[in-house]
Design brief:
The chain is mainly α. The chain has a domain of 78 residues. It is built from 10 helices and 7 strands.
């Protein structure tokens, strides 16, 4: 009987170990699946140019050593695929295949140089039928189609109209993709404040939302709401300034905004009802009224 118990206990322990191993394997497989589904990298087809081939970014280093060195720090550099058979086409993913540019010693511009360049010709002097240089915006939209859609919304920055370019706010070749960006949200605001200096301050009474970043209230590329606002009405403010109901009154920030005698919430949005018009900050009012 004792031997049976020992064998039974041993078998039970083995089953538990096997079950634990299977559970661990299943958990690992689930983690892999979730990780793969969580990747935000976009896979796009590189632009095809007749007569030109992809040679890899390493060739670019021969003449553009500083750009090549700085690009290793760029956010875009993370999009380069890894593996023994992967082509480091970081530069060419935006500028097109660079074989003709490299073989000519730089006389022939890359297909997409974004600047006026010498037109490629055949040995007979005829022009090669390649598509014209695409705009910077179209190069960006190849990997960011969602941003293209945002620029088609009623309120948007003037990129489609040619008043500004993606590179006015974004740095494709070095460091953070957001100019002035980094780990500090205040630094990220610099991209906006270069064109909107009136909102920079300093203010005696600062709106705390500025510390969270301009994108707390504004959609940087485009929005269905006026002034690129993420929400069109008082609900934008109520995301941070919670309502409380006390004694039949609606309190926001400890102040009565709705009661039998006061109807502030019915007067319009918080910044158009004559109450909190200094939405970015005020020098005279702690409630951002003027």
């Amino acid at each position: 009987m004792r031997n049976f118990n020992i064998r039974f206990a041993g078998n039970w322990s083995a089953k538990r170990v096997k079950g634990a191993a299977l559970a661990a394997g299943a958990s690992l497989l689930l983690l892999v699946v979730i990780s793969c589904q969580s990747v935000t990298r976009s896979v796009v087809v590189l632009p095809n140019v007749p007569g030109a081939e992809y040679i890899g970014s390493k060739e670019c280093e021969m003449c553009h050593d500083k750009l090549y060195r700085d690009f290793a720090t760029a956010d875009h550099a993370r999009l380069i695929a890894e593996g023994p058979n992967a082509l480091n086409a970081g530069c060419e993913s935006c500028h097109g295949p660079g074989s003709l540019h490299s073989e000519s010693g730089g006389e022939v511009k890359p297909p997409y140089s974004f600047t006026a360049g010498r037109t490629e010709t055949t040995s007979f002097g005829a022009r090669v039928g390649i598509e014209p240089a695409r705009s910077v915006e179209n190069a960006c939209f190849q990997c960011h189609p969602n941003v293209r859609g945002q620029f088609n919304l009623p309120s948007h920055h003037g990129v489609p109209e040619g008043k500004m370019s993606c590179t006015d706010c974004h740095s494709p070749h070095k460091g953070s993709i957001l100019r002035g960006g980094g780990t500090s949200l205040l630094s990220a605001n610099e991209a906006c404040l270069r064109c909107h200096p009136a909102q920079r301050g300093p203010y005696v009474f600062e709106h705390e939302a500025l510390r969270e970043g301009c994108t707390t209230c504004h959609a940087p590329h485009g929005s269905v709401n006026d002034k690129l606002l993420t929400v069109r009405d008082a609900n934008l403010c109520l995301k941070c300034h919670f309502q409380q109901v006390q004694g039949g009154n609606i309190l926001i920030g400890g102040s009565v905004h709705e009661s039998a005698a006061i109807h502030r919430l019915q007067q319009g949005t918080c910044w158009t009802a004559g109450c909190h018009e200094a939405v970015h900050g005020s020098r005279v009012s702690s409630s951002l009224r003027f």
